[in-house]
Amino acid sequence: MIVHVYERAEASGEGPVWVATDDREIADVVEAAGGKAVMTDATHPSGSDRIWQALGSIDGDGKYDTVINVQGDVPTIEPELLTVVAEPLKQAHVDIATLACEIDNDDDKSNPAIVKPVIAWQDDTHGKALYFSRACIPGGEGPLFHHIGIYAYRRSALEKFVSLPPSPLELRERLEQLRALEAGMHIDVVRVNTVPLGVDTPEQLEQARSHFS
After folding, report:
1. Topology classification of domain 64-212
2. Model confidence over 182-196: pLDDT tens digits?
């Protein structure tokens, strides 16, 4: 699965791709497939902390000013999404960018495993994140959105983020992006039309195997 994710990230052409892991077995699999892996501590509280350590190991001189964080459990991710998520960082006021897709069924709206962003849309495809929740929000008539956990960070924003302690809302909702919002950071959201399959359960693993077969 991690090799599928790695290859799709490479296909995006957005820059060098590294797998940050605390598991030597994962690193060995990636390197055996011709990829690059960097070992990180096993005690990181979040993926953002892990990629900050990895960035320091890979690029201590600060050559790169943008980092895209892709979870290792989305083997069907479309390479184009990495290009799309990086686009908002061309605007100086944006600290972090991420993606969302409109929810098209009632089960997903009430599923706490699916994170719903509240977005102040600037146009049909771009908006500012106001909040993220596992609850069915916002209320009233209108579409709800499925947050896709791919992030593009301005390097300075990532450095600031990992220096902050976990915030009250982050701990309550178990969503680390709320730490950034509580600290006044600007998260831009790009609307897309697809949600990559995330593998969190045995059933989703079978879905992924069926897809690739």
Report:
1. Spore Coat Polysaccharide Biosynthesis Protein SpsA; Chain A (3.90.550)
2. 999 999 999 999 898
